[in-house]
């Protein structure tokens, strides 16, 4: 997919105030520092689109970007706190939960995972929650340039293997990316394009 246009539309914490356009939507989410802003900017080839809302604390907002005038890329707040909580609902901000429960335009989520890490409770719980709510998602492994090819493959395989042991019968769809090298860009964009053209 060629990115012909990428524009910031709106930021908010209220899903009812998200854009009304009935165009396909893809949401990017992950723990803080996983490389989400870098990945979004790499995908759309804009230096700082993921920061252009220009408001302090924008990482705690639902940020809508319209791409090629035909689909929304949504930058969701980073999750994951030291805070111990029994329910997933209180662990993930209420408005994130509401976003996933209510947003009819959402086609798929992308859950970002640092390729160097082994499965962390908060990520696994979040993916489980998505699964229970019937929300399709793929994993995007980030920062692949930090490892050698053999280690990337091993880590990703171990991660998916562990997920299937703990929670899933089948490993989720996944991508391996690096915002530094641009690896995985075509894979993610072609995936989105193919769904949009279906
Ligand atoms: P966010 O908090 O998830 O939006 O993460 P950022 O995109 O701000 O990235 C967090 C840190 O990781 C920054 O220091 C980035 O420079 C670094 N980073 C992000 N993506 C990559 C990557 O693909 N490769 C490398 N080497 N560093 C990355």
From TrEMBL:
Keywords: Cell cycle, Cell division, GTP-binding, Magnesium, Metal-binding, Nucleotide-binding, Septation. Residues 22-198 form the EngB-type G domain. This is Probable GTP-binding protein EngB. GO terms for molecular function: GTP binding; metal ion binding. Necessary for normal cell division and for the maintenance of normal septation. Belongs to the TRAFAC class TrmE-Era-EngA-EngB-Septin-like GTPase superfamily. EngB GTPase family. Its cofactor is Mg(2+). It comes from Zhouia amylolytica AD3. Transmembrane segments: none annotated. GO terms for biological process: division septum assembly. Gene3D superfamilies: P-loop containing nucleotide triphosphate hydrolases (3.40.50.300).
């Amino acid at each position: 997919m060629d990115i012909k246009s990428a524009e910031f539309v709106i930021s908010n914490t209220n899903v009812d105030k998200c854009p009304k356009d009935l165009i396909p939507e893809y949401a990017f989410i992950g723990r803080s520092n996983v490389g989400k802003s870098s990945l979004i900017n790499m995908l759309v080839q804009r230096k700082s689109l993921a920061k252009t809302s220009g408001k302090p604390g924008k990482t705690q907002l639902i940020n809508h970007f319209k791409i090629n005038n035909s689909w929304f890329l949504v930058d969701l707040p980073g999750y994951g706190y030291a805070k111990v909580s029994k329910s997933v609902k209180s662990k993930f901000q209420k408005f994130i939960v509401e976003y996933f429960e209510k947003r009819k335009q959402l086609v798929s989520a992308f859950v970002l995972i640092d390729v160097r890490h082994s499965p962390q409770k908060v990520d696994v719980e979040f993916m489980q929650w998505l699964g229970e709510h019937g929300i399709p998602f793929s994993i995007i492994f980030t920062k692949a340039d930090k490892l050698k090819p053999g280690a990337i493959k091993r880590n990703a395989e171990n991660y998916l293997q562990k997920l299937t042991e703990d929670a899933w019968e089948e490993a989720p769809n996944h991508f391996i990316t690096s915002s530094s090298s641009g690896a995985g860009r075509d894979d993610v964009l072609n995936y989105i394009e193919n769904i949009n053209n279906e």
